[in-house]
Amino acid sequence: MLREFIRNERIAYFSMEIALQNDIPTYSGGLGVLAGDTLRSAADLQMPMVAVTLVSRLGYFHQHIDEEGGQSESADTWAPEKYAHPLPAKVAVVIDGRDVWVSGWLYVLESYLGGRQPVLLLDTDLDENRADDRQITDRLYGGDAAYRLKQEIVLGVGGARLLHALDFHVRQYHLNEGHSALLTLELLRRHAYPADGLRPGDSPYDIPAVRELCNFTTHTPVEAGQDRFPYELVHRLLDDFVDNDTLMLLAGREELNMTRLAMNMSDYVNGVAKRHAEVSRRMFPGYHVRAITNGVHPHSWTSIPFRKLFDAHLPGWCHEPEQLLRADCCIPKKELWQTHMEAKQELVRLVEERCHVSLDVDVPILGFARRMTAYKRPDLLFYDIERLRAIARKQPFQIVLAGKAHPRDEQGKQLIRQLYGYIRQLSDDIRVVFIPGYNMETGLKLVSGSDIWLNTPLKPFEASGTSGMKAAFNGVPNLSVLDGWWVEGCIEGVTGWAIGESCDDGESCDVANGNDAAALYRKLEEVVLPLYRDNRDGWISVMQGAICKNASLFNSHRMMRRYAADAYIR
Ligand SMILES: *Cc1c(COP(=O)(O)O)cnc(C)c1O
């Protein structure tokens, strides 16, 4: 099974989470979906990669929501043996002074175009390990700082060693976010100079040689979001893995900052949108941070009705999404609209099933689904309930919401409770529903079945955002704050609409929520809803704009060709 993958050189892609398929819960949100789309595109394009992640046997979590909007969680257990093959090797890493054995599973990600990519799912649930060590790879983003650091040791150090033990030929490493940055320390150890040739002040490691091997993609536009560990914990768990002076030089004096370590150890560093790269450069002066804007996987994020439509009019679009540039001329408007209505029916059915509410297919649906966390501001639309109600009285619309809050994000959980409160308050005037259990499957139904895809993050916290790109593949225009990818994607009135102003310098430009809410209401009331109601032809032109000018560009094929040309081949 492995043999076909160890013949040639590969790019080793490390990510704490990867969304492999809907029923494998090894992801929490956008980062994992991006990692999955990265591999799906690499498979379609036959780019040789090997992915390394944790098996996360208990998944992220299964979301339950009570009548009041209170979220509770249960394990989302899955059985790796049903989907993957046991790996024929195991390696040891030292954690807290003892050997922890790491093996895992080979999952083969198959492209519907025939490409195959190996994914190693690291697992410490082995007889050799102590009971608590067997749980290190159980819960994605679960546990305390010590648990997280152990996971990151397994991912970075264990992953690198397992690749070696399995005979993979790694051409370059790609660190998707800082969680796997300890990998660079393992590489430093492999590139240590013989101690007897060193003079005082010499680095004991060939740092440039390691930097040449590493690429780092950062996803965090704020210091507070970076993965950091106190050195006291690091010294206890990691031993003297590399010499302390080198570690502090590369990862920070005060605490071990994974982002800083990854930045220092990678010759190629990029942010996930142009705006995000600007923000990152400001956060890390002196570093050369480039931009490769995220994209989504064409086949995975296009609903079945739209796949059929594109297949009929733009054959080859799945391998060459640039074909979608022609969608405005090649797809009759009437067919585009009918196809959208099919996708919308699907969403209406889902809402009936899950929420026991009947939506009206003739009334526009505003869709909003994201991780429920403060900066995403899922409550912004409800900032002024009376105003919202007044708009709906003149021009009716419906709202579909979904999203999970991290189990320890109390603010995020409070937001879901607030949303349930708004649903109740508005029940006589606006149909608003919340679909529990946001995942890849409901995600696709949401982005394809809505009429308008809403996005209201606090600037500049949205590094890229990807759900809006998925909407574009289904002809659903975005109505979004100008942050992340939308700074590049928005052509006002052509691909969708902006909420408020852009702030060109990328400086911290968060305006008061009230301003953004007012801008949102104004745009909805004066531009978006009237166009939908009074000018269907004009509306369909915007749907075409989303496909032609957004989907043709913001896809993971373009993204991977960029990574190949700019980062991997150098
Ligand atoms: C696409 C996706 C996300 C990311 O969406 P954003 O717009 O970046 O917030 C999160 N979760 C799921 C299940 C997704 O499919």
From TrEMBL:
Family statement drawn from the similarity comment of this UniProt entry: Belongs to the glycogen phosphorylase family.
Any single biological process term in GO: carbohydrate metabolic process
One Gene Ontology MF term: glycogen phosphorylase activity
Record's protein name: Alpha-glucan family phosphorylase
Membrane spanning stretches: none
InterPro entries: Agluc_phsphrylas, Glyco_trans_35, Glycogen/Maltodextrin_Phosph
Organism (species): Mariprofundus erugo
Signal peptide positions (record): none
PANTHER family associated with the record: GLYCOGEN PHOSPHORYLASE
Gene: glgP
